[in-house]
Specification:
This protein is an all-alpha fold and 101 residues long. It has one domain. The protein has 4 helices and no strands. The longest helix is centred in the first third of the chain and has 27 residues. It is elongated and about 55 Å long. It starts with 9 loop residues before the first helix and ends in an 11-residue tail after the last helix.
Length: 101
């Protein structure tokens, strides 16, 4: 093994494949957001597109700077919080049914 190389286990490879599949699903979901063409639909789609591509890149290549500064992407609690916040962008709140009286 080369100096500085990381030993990747079979379990880690399985999680990486699952993460790549989820990232591809994010990108497909982002494509559906662009169909409507409104600003309120395109902005969450753009967010999902960026996060999806970033997740794929970070699963295949993990630079030291990202590992040091974005550690939340590689633990379950951090990934869960990221998914929770990104899901908030997927379900817009309609303000047409709000009664302010």
């Amino acid at each position: 093994m080369k100096p500085g190389a990381v030993n990747i286990s079979t379990k880690d490879i399985a999680w990486r494949i699952i993460n790549i599949i989820v990232s591809v699903l994010w990108i497909v979901t982002a494509a559906f957001h662009f169909v409507d063409g409104t600003f309120q639909s395109v902005m969450p789609g753009l967010f999902l597109l960026i996060v999806g591509f970033a997740s794929i890149v970070f699963e295949l290549w993990r630079p030291r700077v990202v590992l040091e500064n974005c550690y939340f992407m590689w633990n379950f609690m951090g990934r869960g919080i990221l998914l929770w916040f990104s899901s908030l962008t997927l379900f817009p709140v309609s303000s047409t049914n709000v009664d302010y009286s």
